[in-house]
Design goal:
Blueprint: H1 5-10, H2 16-28, H3 31-40, H4 59-71, H5 76-85, H6 87-93, H7 104-116, H8 119-133, E1 142-150, E2 157-158, E3 164-166, E4 175-179, E5 182-193, E6 199-206, H9 215-219, E7 225-228, H10 235-244, E8 247-250, H11 263-276, H12 280-289, H13 300-318, H14 322-332, H15 336-355, H16 362-378
Parallel strand pairs: 1-7, 7-8
Antiparallel strand pairs: 1-5, 2-3, 4-5, 5-6
Helix pairs in contact: 2-6, 5-7, 8-13, 14-15, 15-16
């Protein structure tokens, strides 16, 4: 297809940061495979040989619109408006024709179809499989944690005489809980990550559900090590992990009759906390960068599906970090002495990355590492 003068003019337009991020996401997300799944499940039916009328909106554009909506915390009307307005959004969706831009009703109906058939959780699984094939998820242990997602609280309705006639929330499945003396109303998002903070599993419950109730479901596939905060501490769990030969990295707290922790417990807690803290990074990204602090939908089922979509998009964003790919190359190295040299060099590069740029080109770093190792082997 020949480009128009307008397409040539817009070819290098768009915000530098947003274009860089969206271009990386465009390469990582398996759009073609996801579209095939939508066709198989009957959510999307391509029109062949249609003559006249408005052209059908491609499934890739509908999926991309949902992803943009989650990354930038947009409502359905604002998603439609910004796709019309922003060049970076149009390039991400490969939009050439104004008629293929979905309106807010189309986006809403498409999302409801995905939720009804539980395909958002399927998208999460597909992204996870893609990352496993590319060795972007480390099998060195599991970190577990949960966070509260707020939902609108019930408002008291009174009659003319001042008597309370209703005290129900819009979301009847949302519940109350207390954390650090403060009252919270909504749902809870439980996640399991690898040792670099990439989400492997996500479960949604009501806020009143204790964190530890989802521990077994989140760690059922783990056979090496588990790290969690003191809320997951249990004597039975400790014995069970020891019997399975799984390293117990759960932070310990004082029990009844114990005035203070033993020196060994204190030392272990400090060691575990450094690694366990990485599970907080996905929550920081989701709540501060994606601005996801409040439930968007009513009911646990819809919010569970939305949690899966949020986790899948967070996972895709995490996988663009190039020093992570270097670390995976290190882990795959079988020679113990060679692996030690890799780790030393990697730490040097990580310090440089922290000082200068957040992202480095993976090929350049790997070339430098291989070159230095070649020198080491000759010495």
């Amino acid at each position: 297809m020949q480009l128009s003068f307008f397409d040539h003019a817009m070819q290098y337009q768009g915000g530098k940061k947003s274009m860089k991020f969206l271009n990386e996401m465009k390469e990582i997300i398996p759009f073609e495979h996801l579209v095939v799944i939508l066709i198989e499940e009957g959510v999307y039916t391509p029109e062949v040989g249609k003559k006249g009328g408005r052209p059908q909106t491609p499934a890739k554009i509908l999926l991309g619109a949902l992803f943009l909506q989650s990354w930038y915390s947009l409502s359905d009307p604002m998603t439609e408006e910004l796709i019309h307005d922003r060049i970076s959004f149009r390039k991400f969706l490969d939009i050439k024709d104004e008629d293929t831009i979905p309106d807010e009703t189309t986006i809403c109906k498409f999302r409801n179809k995905l939720i009804k058939k539980k395909l958002l959780s399927r998208i999460f699984d597909e992204v996870k499989e893609m990352m496993i094939k590319k060795h972007l998820i480390l099998n060195e242990g599991t970190l577990v944690d949960a966070t509260l997602i707020h939902s609108s609280e019930p408002k008291r309705k009174k009659d003319d005489k001042g008597k309370v006639i209703s005290n129900e929330a819009h979301d009847k499945e949302a519940t109350y809980t207390s954390k650090r003396g403060q009252k919270h109303h909504g749902h809870k998002m439980h996640i399991a990550t690898d040792t670099n903070g990439v989400i492997k599993k996500v479960i949604g419950t009501t806020a009143s559900t204790h964190d530890s109730t989802q521990f077994d479901a989140l760690t059922e596939d783990e056979d090496k090590a588990i790290f969690a905060d003191s809320g997951y501490m249990s004597k039975k769990r400790k014995v069970k992990l020891r019997e399975k030969g799984i390293f117990n990295g759960i932070v310990e707290r004082r029990v009844r009759g114990q005035s203070e922790l033993r020196p060994k417990q204190t030392r272990n807690n400090k060691r575990f906390a450094k690694l366990r803290g990485l599970v907080e990074l996905p929550f920081a990204f989701i709540k501060h960068h994606m601005n996801f602090r409040t439930c968007r939908y009513l009911g646990l089922d819809k919010n569970q599906e939305h949690f899966c979509l949020i986790a899948a998009l967070r996972k895709s964003a995490k996988s663009t970090c190039s020093d992570r790919e270097v670390w995976i190359t290190v882990q795959k190295c079988q020679n113990r002495h060679l692996k030690a040299k890799y780790i030393i060099i990697l730490r040097i590069f990580q310090r440089k990355i922290a000082k200068n740029e957040r992202l480095y080109f993976f090929g350049d770093i790997l070339f430098e590492i291989n070159w230095i190792l070649w020198v080491f082997q000759r010495v």
